[in-house]
Amino acid sequence: MRLTEEIRTILLYARDEAMRxxxxxxxxxxxxxGILRHGDNAAVQALGKFGLEPSEVKEALxxxxxxxxxxxxxxxxxxxFTRTALSITNLTVxxxxxxxxxxxxxxxxxxxxxxxxxxxxxxxxxHGVSLQVLRTYINKSSEEHAKSSxxxxxxxxxxxxxxxxxxxxxx
Length: 171
Known about the structure:
With about 170 residues, this protein is mainly α. The protein is built from nine helices and two strands; from the N terminus they run H-E-H-H-H-E-H-H-H-H-H.
């Protein structure tokens, strides 16, 4: 298992989002904003499947966390992960281990959904996105990926024919 470039980028975006919204603490909302900013990932695709538009989610998150002014770049080193966000990153790793996949945005989204009482979690739950729903989505997409990577019966017959023809050549 490894930390993907996708998740590294999302974590950097989360810091940028915290600064943009005027927060010295990178919280769950900033992690979700980082996912949305990245855009091209399984978490955003999952949100779309559940009828959530990224722009609407961003608008709701911004309304919840936005402060009067952004954090200046000279103070970037003062922006750190909150305990909740650190807990979410740990849960992200656990979700990836559970699904036997590399750590990705959809695991981060699932971990965000595992924090009752947090705005993000409650917002997602109110729109039908929960930890259980995402786990089902992750498992289903993992199974579909596994099926699509296995050759079909026709492809398998072609491969076997080619294999046996090669064997005849070498005998």
